[in-house]
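Lab notebook, bench 4. Continuing the backlog of folding jobs that were queued last week. Each job is logged with the same field layout so the records can be merged later without manual cleanup. Today's entry covers Phosphoglycerate kinase, a 324-residue chain. Filled in by technician R.K.

JOB TYPE: sequence-to-structure
TARGET: Phosphoglycerate kinase
LENGTH: 324
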Amino acid sequence: MITANELLGKNVLLRADLDVPIKDGRVENTFRLESLLPTLKLCLENARRTCLIGHLGRPEGLDPAFSLAPVLDELKRLTHQDILFVSSGYSPGECWKGELPLALIENLRFDPREEKIDRGFASVLSQGADIYVYEAFASFNPATSLQTVPEVLPTATGLQFDREITTLGRVLRSPIHPTLLLASGAKMDKLEIIKQIMPKFDRSLLGGKFASPNHLTPDGLDLNEEATSLFKKAISEAQTIVLNGPLGYYEDGAHAKATKEVFQSLKDSSAMTILGGGDTIAAIPDLGFSYADFGFVSTGGGAMLDFLATGTHPLLEILKNRTP
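JOB STATUS: finished
OUTPUT FIELD FOLLOWS
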């Protein structure tokens, strides 16, 4: 865990989860940015300068539609301060100049070297930094900033990253039984990883396209009433519950019933409730709930499932295998 003393007077390169939904030039959901704030605040209070880096979407080269400018605006609002935006090229050295204590570099994916695990690009990004703080639990794609920079700079994990590892680790190592996994989705590669996780739980129930046909409404877009009752009964009997993914196509407004009822049961439950996934993060406020209604909401979706399947995170393996 990063401490104030480790940051004191240093230039901090902070890798964050900046891949947030943007609509009409504004950040549509601020959960990941708000989860960054405790670490960011610690940096601002103790570091000399802090330089934020991250991804947004999958642009094909330089594409203004994937600019981090809306993220910059939202971070200014959340931190109540001005932020230097390094928008032209990749010149991290600019982060350490001037009067502002906080800077944000434009979308790293605008540079093809980010996806190529390029050691030269890692050196460019690390220029002038004393320490790398990794606060990107949800990001586990192959990328220079995620895999190579931690090999170049002294690296510490952020406060949210540590919460993710501790909370999910407890589910694997010392959960209160009975444990329940509620998982939903549409992609078959997600189903494969869920199948790896299911034996680690006392009971598992599947929604979305993973559900059995007799659990779905006639149009196949939501759980039917019988299945919803089954899910709610399972929740009432469990002591540790992990949910990943809304249970139906809630976005259209006509198929939100099961997800809303299950969320309400989780809110009312005395069990440890852990929710995750990008669609889940969006569904919570969309359906009238607060993130505080649940025990823990993960910033990750695939990363959360990956951790439950493997018991580790790629960054932890990088740090473990670093040569002193």
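OBSERVATION: The radius of gyration is 20 Å.
SIGNED: R.K.
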